[in-house]
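S1.2 Input.
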Amino acid sequence: MPDGASVFVQGEPVDSFPEFAPEARRGTVRRITVVGEEVLHRPCQPATEFGTAELTQLIDDMFTTMYLAEGVGLAANQIGVDLRLFVYDCPDDDDVRHVGHVLNPVVEPLPENDRTLIIDNEGCLSVPGPHMELARPETTRLRGVDKDGAEVTLEASGYFARCLRHETDHLNGWLYIDRLSKRDRKKALREMERMQEDVLARRAERAEEFEG
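S1.3 Output.
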C-alpha cells in the first residue's frame, strides 16, 4: 500500500474522494431483503453481460441503498437481484477507506502461514438489528471484474477483509448468522424480532429525506 494513501477506489489509490461515492447521487433507494426470503438463501447467478446501462443503474441503486441503510457493503441479492455483484465503502483497521464494486468475486485460498482468525462483532442489513461475534480470517485476497469486465483484485486486512468475505458469502447464499452456533443464531434472530421495527423505521425515514 503506498505511503500516505487514505482512499482506494476499485483497489487503486486516489488523491481525494467525496463523502459518498458519486454513484449514490444517481441511484434510487431499493427495499432490502430480510432473512427468510429465498433470494438470500441460494447462490447468485454469475454476471455474463458487462458495460450495460442496466448494470450501471443497478450499481448506482445499490450504493444509494447501502448508504441510506448505514451499511458498509451490500450484495445484489439484498435488494432482490439474483446476480453475483456487491458494492462496498468500508474502512480497514488502519482507517484507510476502500470503495468500489465487484462482479463474480472469488476469494483466493490463504497461504498456510497466513490463516489467523480474528473474532469481532458482525451485523447484516438483511438481519436488521443484532450484532454477534464471529471469527473471520484476518486477511483476504479477492479477485473479480468491474461493470465493464475489467479485472479487479483486492487485498484486504482487518475489518475490510471481513466485509469482503461477508459480501461474498451473500452471493453464495450464506448470511453471517449461518456461520454461528445454533444457540447464537437463535439469539440473533430473537434480537432481530425485537429490534427490526425500529431499524426499518429509521431506514424509511432516511429514504424519505433523500427522496424529498
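S1.4 Remarks. Helices lie at 23-26, 53-68, 158-171, 182-211.
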